[in-house]
Amino acid sequence: MKAAATAAIEAAGASRWVRAEISTTTLVRHRQQRRGRPGANTLYVRIEEQRYQVRAVVTDDVVRDDACFDGCWPTMTNDKHLTAAELLAAMKRQPCVEGRHHVFKHVVDFLPVYLKSNERIDAFAFLGYVAVLVHALIERELRHAMRDAEIAALPLYPESRDCKAPTAARVIEIFEPLYAHELRVAGEVVASFDPTLSKLHRQVLDLLHVPATAYQAERETAQ
Predict the structure, then answer these.
(1) What predicted TM-score, i.e. pTM, was given to this entire model?
(2) Count of other CB atoms within 10 angstroms of residue 195
(3) Does 79 map to a domain?
(4) d(CA 66, CA 75)
(5) 201 plus 128 within the same structural domain
(6) Domain range for residue 207?
(7) Mind listing the pLDDT tens digit for each residue in 21-44?
(8) 125: closest CA among 136, 110, 109?
């Protein structure tokens, strides 16, 4: 019983502050030795039963000492010029870095890497980080432009739901279905078809300072 309680405490990660103790209680009762109505000469048998109880004991001194360090953690850096406040501010930017790791792994789809040469792996990783940088720049440019134009949200989500903080992945996704087509007869272009830009497409392009002509097919000049 004690082993099971100890295992449960360790599984919860609380073994440093709590331990299990077993207390034993003896219950005594008497029973007639033989059946029948009791009388002056009735003999009784003494029966003892052991009852066990598991009790959690808190190690108060350890809890008190650990409470002094609650909310404190060490930081390490190789930048000797940062003040304590600047170092803490830099550490708190970690979630932003982790968010870019998500883009690198899942949006850019960097993994898996089917390369053996270290040089090719380095080159491929460099291209991946360039893609992440492009994503970050698109988001920065678009969000700053929305702020300057006092636009609270863009209908980028499905069903034209508002998006207050557009991501580059969502911007690329709405432009992905656009295609320019050319009709050729005997190798000669007889007609060109530009993609149809919606009002949302044009608004996003305007905020990113990209001309709509970038989505027009190049015309070939007849010789």
Answers:
(1) 0.54
(2) 15
(3) no
(4) 18
(5) yes
(6) 90-215
(7) 888 889 898 888 888 888 888 888
(8) 110
